[in-house]
Every structure is written in C-alpha cells, then in structure tokens.
Amino acid sequence: MNQTKILLDESEIPTHWYNVVADMPNPPEAVLGPDGNPVTPDALAAIFPESLIMQEVSTERWIEIPEAVREIYQLWRPSPLYRAHRLEAALGTPAKIYYKYEGVSPAGSHKPNTAVAQAYYNKQAGIKKLSTETGAGQWGSSLSLVGKMFGIEVLVYMVKVSYHQKPFRRSMMHTWGANVIASPSDTTQAGRSILEKDPDSPGSLGIAISEAVEVAASSPDTNYALGSVLNHVLLHQTVIGLEAKKQFEKVGDYPDVILAPCGGGSNFGGVAFPFLADKAAGKEVRLVAVEPTSCPTLTRGHYAYDFGDSIGMTPLLKMYTLGHDFVPPGIHAGGLRYHGDSALVSQLYHEGLIEAVAVPQVGTFEAGVQFAQSEGIIPAPESNHAIKAAIDEALKCKASGESKTIFFNLSGHGHFDMASYDKYFSGELEDYDYPQEAIDAALHNLPKV
Ligand SMILES: *Cc1c(COP(=O)(O)O)cnc(C)c1O
To answer: Does residue 182 sit within a domain?
Structure first.
C-alpha cells in the first residue's frame, strides 16, 4: 500500500536534540556587547537561566532532552510525516512531495517544541514569571500553553497590528492563563519612547522584544523567552528534522530538497539542520529557507552585526538584517516579519551551505489554497511560503520529467488566519517588494563595530 501518513511511536520521540554547531565548517561568529567585545555568558544571566545560556554556546553535537520535556512532547509528538499524493496528482508532477505537519501541537505550530524546553529550564532555575513578545500570536500562544504546565506566569507583549487583527490568538493566550498587552505600550520605557515619536505605531517584533526584555531585565524572578532566532531555540526545534529522518527511513526514501518558511529561522533550522549533518558527511541534499519578498532578510539583507530588537537593548548578532529599525509592511505572514535572522542560519547561508529564496504574497496564498483543496489542511500563511516554493520545485520536475523527492515543513495550521484568506479571496492582498532605498538606508543605521 502507498503510505500517506508515516507515523512513529511515542517511544521514538528523540532523546537528544542535535546541535549543528558540531558540524559547521567554522565556529559561530561571536555575540558582541555594546562595547564591541564578545559577550560573556554571565552578561545574559539577567534574562536567561544558565542552562539555556550553556546551550546557546554549546559545541556538543547531542544534548539530552529532559524526561519532563519529552513527557509533554508526548501530547502531540511525534508529528506525522505526510506523503502529499493528492497534491502530486493535482500538479501532475513526477516528483514525490512530503511534508512534516507541526500544526498538530495544541497551539497549532512548531513553536511549543521550544516553549516546553524553555519553561522547563526556567522553572528549574526558580523563575516565577516569563515575559515575551509575539507577532502573529503563535509564539505567545505557545509560551502561554506551557506556562500553567510548569506553574510559571506568562506576560506577552503582542505587536499592536496583530493584537487587533487576531483577537482569537489573544483569546487563546487568555484561555491558557497568560496576560497579553498590545505593543508598543505605556508599561515600559521602551514602549513609551516609541509612542512619543509615533502614537499610532503599529508596533513590530523588534519593539515588542524591547518591551519584554526591559521587564525581564528589571526583575530578578522574571526571565525572558524568545520564540526564534537564538541558537538554543533552533536546537530545540531539531526534534522536527530528527523525527523526519526516521520517518524517511521507514519508507526507504530521502529528500533531494528541503524547504521551510523562514522568519527568525527556527522551524527551518529545526527541520534542516539534522540533514545538514548528512550533507557534512557528503550526502547531496539542498536546504532552502523561504522568505517573503516584503521582508527579504537573507536574499537582500546585509550580513552584519545588528541588534536583535528595535531600540538596541540586546547584544549584537552577526546576521542577515534589514536594519533593527525596520518596520515591516502589514503583510499577513506575521511570523515572517522579523528584521533579522538566526545567526546560525545566516552564517550557513553566508558560507553557501544552505540556500534562500523569496516569494511574493499572492502566490503564497494561491499555493496554500491549492494545498488545502487537495490535502485538506489549511496552512498558516507562513507555511504557505514553503508550499509555494515546494510547488515551484515540483513544477520544475514536471517540466524536466525528473522524479525528485521534495520535503517541506508545514509549520502550522491557519485556523486563526482565516481573515487573511478572506482578504486573499476578495482580491485585497498585494505583492510588495521591499524597496531598495530602504535596504540601502538601513546600512547607515547599523551599529558600528
Ligand atoms: C513563527 C512561525 C514561523 C516563522 O518562525 P521561524 O522561527 O522562522 O520558524 C513559521 N511558521 C509558523 C506557523 C510560525 O508560527
């Protein structure tokens, strides 16, 4: 029988996360402090527990997943790998298309994979409260979900435009017991300084990060949690790729190309890095990060040291960036609107080990609708980026007659994003290329190091 869902037993949930740093040709670029010198791990101790800081700088290939974390993973992991037979037929492609579905988590995306781990380590460190930011709401939901499980209070700064666009994401966070504030807000100095300049600011992830970090830095029992970008976040997400490798083994197949939507890089790193280990060992596999043309961080940004937030409170990361003062256009894939990118993803891209492609908004919804009409699942707008790029690959195969194995990460479902689908159907969505002037201008505001 031609298998559609390739499933693993709960006993096959990975026991260790995979750390790509062990297989990178060059060590990661240093994280710099405001003085331009490398940040020492204890400089981060005001907002992160030591265990996560150690993971952030670890060079060990395998890091054990605590039993308590694996137990919570059992609520939705292992996630299914699907063979997209019906999409293949609809496209008439000789390519084989597979997707890993992370929408089976209670929050509906891959983000709980790291939220569980972060809450666990903070609880171990005696932390009572976690502050964070959220764009589209997926990360805020994910941290809210695990807060109660570990008895940790959760405070979420939600980007104002999304706060109003996505009331039900807010309701979800409330249901799980979190406190949600629209950002920029008057509850922090960072928020007040933005509102002074622009009372109607729609907010951005960078601004919300500034607010959440400020709260954590000024209170000893409060820490900060980040849903993407940092090395330890990508580390936790490798459960996706590790499971996928076992699933491909079960059906005796192996991907030629792996695609994932890329915002801060966590689901891309999560699905792709375990395969990079094979690539380092000589195997042919293409790893492609897919981003929007409206926020083309990897494909058109500068590879430079920049702040992680908008007002310059965080250490400097060497990454592809559109400038920390980037205020993104109100496109609908909220999770892909960050100005920067994971330092690990950025470095691997810079060194030519991974690829990146940018796709325009309307085409991503077209792809998402075609996917929903053949496979059933309604994807998150972020995930539609990977679907669009996967369909493009499949159509290339159709033209060339090649039967490649295409694998993409379906990072989440779109059940809370139906307003964006409605806009697509009513023709209100537009393609938007981030202007070159803005990219050039960003160069002048990068911190001098
Ligand atoms: C947050 C999110 C993304 C983008 O974030 P990454 O850190 O790049 O993975 C993609 N898809 C979904 C469903 C998300 O929630």
So the answer is: no
Among 41-45, 110-114, 335-339, 382-386, which is the least confidently predicted range?
335-339
What residues have CB less than 8 Å from 200, skipping those under 6 apart?
Answer: none
Ligand 1 closest atom vs CA 135: 1
Asked if residue 328 has pLDDT above 80, the reply is no
What is the C-alpha to C-alpha distance for residues 31 and 315, in angstroms, rounded to an integer?
Answer: 7
What range does the domain containing 91 cover?
Answer: 5-9+67-108+232-444
Query: Which residues does ligand 1 sit against, CB inside 6 Å?
Result: 109, 111, 138, 228, 261-268, 335-336, 380, 382-383, 411-412
The answer to whether residue 88 sits within a structural domain is yes
Secondary structure of residue 28 in the 3-state scheme: coil
C-alpha 119 – ligand 1 centre gap (Å): 19
Cα-flanking dihedrals φ and ψ of residue 85, to 5°? -55, -45
In a domain, 205, yes or no: no
Q: Could you tell me the pLDDT band of residue 1, with boundaries at 50, 70 and 90?
A: low
pLDDT at 299 over 80: yes
* pLDDT level of residue 294 (50, 70, 90 thresholds): very high
pLDDT in tens, 237-249: 999 999 999 999 9
Residue 209 domain-assigned (yes or no): no
Of 104, 109, 290, the one to substitute when testing ligand 1's pocket (max ligand atoms within 8 A of C-beta) is 109
- In this structure, what token pair is assigned to residue 378? 């309604």
Ligand 1: atom nearest CA of 269 is 9
Query: What is the distance in A from the centroid of ligand 1 to the CA of 267?
Result: 6
C-alpha 299/C-alpha 318 separation (Å) is 16
Q: How far is ligand 1, taken at its centre, from the CA of residue 411, in Å?
A: 6
Count up the domains in the chain and report the number.
Answer: 1
Going by alpha carbons, the residue nearest to atom 3 of ligand 1 is 335
Q: Which two tokens stand for residue 381?
A: 């707008």
CATH code: domain of residue 353: 3.40.50.1100
